[in-house]
Design brief:
Helix content is 24%, strand content 33%. It is of the alpha+beta class and 286 residues long.
């Protein structure tokens, strides 16, 4: 089974709808779910200022994990009002659904270009919780890839749970526990496509980047995996650790094919000191 997902650039809400309709006309199985479309529209409202999409947020129960925003619907509104009018740009490149969760991969431009992963939890048809991870846009990487290009088509819907288990094992074995001797069992060798702005394709690119970091005295450590979400051949892991000694949130999106990881996107965000938090919900709390 396959399911085509959104992949556009700086489209208006109307244009997004047109692209979706055209795609549906050419691929019968291609369809965004109601909740996926609601997330796309909500994120686009950051750019357009439209109020209607915000109605999907439960005003009485909205827990915010973006530590730069106050809790609740009021905090979301305050964050939007801080943006200079007409300054924001939003382009959601990928969106996926896993049970009550919808997660999106988006190009932003507010106070500078950024790439973000957003996770929304739905309850009774409304959004009640939000997590995200943002990184300043960088790249292209040594292989010429940017942070959001690459495959968008969702396939292998019947393999969702197996692919989530594979990624969970990879993150635990390789990223948390450093069992590098197992790496070739998870990654499809030099066919592995990399979108991290500092790393080239393939195991050779990954090895060269790790060596360069070690030579520069830069350490990256994953300590805890907080959540693994997936749809078909795409799996997102949310982890906590340190980068260059600073507390860090790692969001890693993997594409799986034939039981191996074949493509990777990520964002890395420093977790601020608790004294700087605008809510006390923490960065994770799944």
């Amino acid at each position: 089974m396959m399911k085509l997902k959104l992949a556009g650039r700086a489209l208006s809400a109307a244009a997004i709808t047109m692209v979706t309709l055209v795609t549906l006309a050419t691929a019968q199985e291609a369809q965004l779910t109601t909740q996926e479309q609601q997330v796309i529209d909500l994120l686009k409202a950051i750019e357009t200022g439209a109020s209607e999409p915000v109605g999907v947020i439960n005003p009485d129960q909205y827990t915010q994990h973006n530590l730069s925003a106050a809790d609740g619907l009021a905090g979301f509104g305050a964050l939007l009002s801080a943006l200079p009018e007409g300054s924001a740009r939003v382009n959601t490149v990928r969106v996926f659904e896993d049970g009550n969760y919808v997660f999106a991969h988006t190009e932003y431009d507010f106070f500078g270009p950024k790439i973000g992963f957003d996770i929304f939890r739905f309850e009774n048809g409304q959004i009640v919780e939000h997590w995200d991870n943002l990184q300043e846009t960088a790249g292209p990487n040594p292989s010429g890839h940017i942070m959001t290009d690459g495959e968008t088509e969702v396939t292998d819907l019947d393999q969702t749970e197996a692919n989530k288990a594979l990624v969970a094992a990879f993150v635990d074995d390789i990223l948390v526990n450093g069992r590098m001797e197992k790496l070739t069992g998870y990654i499809d060798g030099d066919n592995y496509i990399q979108h991290n702005p500092q790393i080239a394709d393939g195991l050779s690119g990954l090895g060269a980047a790790l060596e360069a970091m070690a030579n520069a005295g830069i350490t990256m450590k994953y300590d805890t995996v907080h959540k693994v979400l997936g749809e078909g051949n795409f799996v997102l892991s949310v982890s906590e650790g340190t980068f260059a000694g600073a507390p860090t949130s790692f969001y890693d999106l993997f594409r799986v094919a034939d039981g191996k990881i074949v493509e990777h996107w990520d964002t890395i965000e420093t977790i601020p000191a608790q004294s700087e938090w605008k809510n006390q919900n923490g960065k994770f709390g799944f």
